[in-house]
Amino acid sequence: MTRSLFSEDFHRVFGVALEQFSDTLMMSISGRFEMDIIQFDQWCVEIGYVPNNLTSCRDFVVQKWGIEAAELIDRILSLKGEQNEAP
């Protein structure tokens, strides 16, 4: 499995491995780490996020882990398909 450049930061912030949210289909096509944001959202629900029309999963992340955690997710997603792997 290709390891994301963000694996260590993600584990430090969230306490789980980033790779558990890998999009294996897209990774098989791109050869790079691709995050499955739907899996991440489902994990957030498992640990307390209640989906509704008033708050987003991003709001939950900010509330639980801080703005830096939300920005980390944003950086991971913005690199989809671009140099998102460790050497």
Distance between the termini: 13 Å
Radius of gyration: 13 Å
* Oligomer category: single chain
Arithmetic mean of pLDDT: 85
Question: Low-confidence runs (pLDDT<50, min 5 residues)?
Answer: 81-87
Query: How many domains, in number, for the residues?
Result: 1
Helix-residue proportion? 40-55%
Number of helices in the DSSP assignment: 5
Please count the beta strands (DSSP E, at least 2 residues each).
0
How would you explain this protein's 3D organization?
The chain has 87 residues and is an all-alpha fold. It has one domain (7-78). The protein has five helices and no strands. It has helices at 7-14, 24-30, 37-46, 57-65, 67-78. It is globular and about 35 Å long. The model is unreliable at 81-87 (pLDDT under 50).
List its traits.
single chain; 87 residues; mainly alpha; 53% helix; 0% strand; disordered C terminus
Annotate the secondary structure layout.
Elements: H1 7-14, H2 24-30, H3 37-46, H4 57-65, H5 67-78
Helix pairs in contact: 4-5
Task: Provide a quick synopsis of the model.
With about 90 residues, the chain is mainly α.
